[in-house]
Amino acid sequence: MIQGYDYIDTGAFEFNDMLRDLHIRRRFHDIFEYSQLVIDVIFNRHFDLLRIPTDQVDFYALDQIFGLESDCFKQICQDQRLFEYFVQSLVLHSKKSRWPVSVVRNSCYFEIYRQLLNRFLPLNEDGLSALKQCDWFSTINRRSAKTSALRLLRPEVIAAAYEPEVVLHTGGGVRSMYPKVYDFSRLLFEGLANCNVVPLFAQVYAINMLVIHYTSFVFSKTSDVDFEKFKHMSRESKMLEKNLKPFLHRWLQSLPFDDIYEELLGFKEKMLLYYKLYSKTFIDLLEVIENRCRVADLTLLSHAKFIYLVVTAIFDSVFCSMYRKLKIEPDEFLEELRQKVAEYQLLLEGQRKEKEQKRKSNWLSSAVGVFQGYISSESEIEKLLHHIMGFLNSKLDGRPLKPIDRSQSSNNSSVSSFSPLANSTPKHETPDFLIDPRTKLYYLTRKGREQVIQGKASFDFSKCINKSNRSVIAAKFEIPYLLPLTAQLSKKYSDSRFVKWLQFHRHSSKLAGLLSKIFLVPSPPRYVPVYSKTIVPRLPQLNLRFMASYPFMIVVMFVLFFIFRVITYIF
Q1: Which of 24, 139, 425, 524 is deepest in the core (most CB within 10 A)?
Q2: Residue 112: inside a domain, yes or no?
């Protein structure tokens, strides 16, 4: 398991025991009821396949029940209702929990997911031959008049009964038809690329795998004439455009700059396949990414990492050549981005010098600053901005930088005109809302919700940038100089093994429960009520703020004095 998660109860023992129980219950059900039971138990019960590692699963028992060659899987593929129910259950399971990508990548769920992709979307001749040997796989060959009763119908009638992505007309007849391959891809794209709920790590990772595998599938060559025609037809279909583009357009505007945003853009080969398949369609997403760059606050490490990803991946030399072929000149935006990075470099440099002067003016602040320098993330941000500036200078062939107004940059706390914590979508009209007469809070109407969901309207948070102080304000009996240090310590060690142990055992262990009341605080839910009514609880986070108080320091000094007296008495 990934370090930091190896102590979590994954439920693998109960899952393996359930597989053995399912194998015994086969004799008491007919194949249809048993297949539905298998889907319900494996995907729709309390088992979380996203956190069960692959090396802890009894795959021999799983293959006997639900393997690609099992009677249960054949029945699912032969019955259209069961097949749709199975794919929907597979999609919903990816939205079940919020485990990070480092955990779900090697999970039992994605091992099953990979096997299904390789079976329904084969990339080589061996996979295609195994697919065509299945009883449920149907192939209509126009050279055989006895293959199917569909040969008794006119081609126009068959074409009207199927979507254009499934049927290809050549020479007045049906060349090839693979409904199960099409249905599997369509149901996965429609289910995973859902714009109604904020996506989770596993959902985005599943979309990445599907897009990379699907595009590799449609571009791979095969000696089978009918299947090659089907791939050619799939390349010209609008399945990706219809499902994936709205999903990316929606969440590239709305998601914060964290790990899940990086998953949307982090695969270079995936982006290459996007533009290779739909250059003119997906080029609209470039404007969305540019707008996110314009409103990014580079005093935050997550925003700086996002800019680094955009410069190194989205504006790679290969992509820039593609943009120029589409009559889009990227140098103008890169010049604008370089100017922004230079202003933030100057801003961070001024902030660092100001902090150094404050530390020298006060002996306590100077002493705390010595320890605070070891855990501060400022140097990491400045180093990252230096790398970004180097990439931009190389892409722009050393063009001179515009002069920066030092007085303006040093006086502003942020060069960005938007709050980094606010919704950083481009400015639109204000959505329809009502004001509560007592609390003065804004409430979106039904029309306003539709405007926000469709991206036609959003609130302007630029007025809030200077209304809240980002620095930690000291309360009564708290030491102001220690508050930044405890805040950075809490952030640095929030993913430590000790904190993870407290988070997952605070209800089962009295000791963990007592320590969690001291070191942990509840974390607010991270969800947008306009997009979803489901509140997913988050784990409590580490908070060492109680250490930056005079009572705590007095107790610590008393304990140290007592230990010193004991040691001097003994020796």
Answers
A1: 425
A2: yes
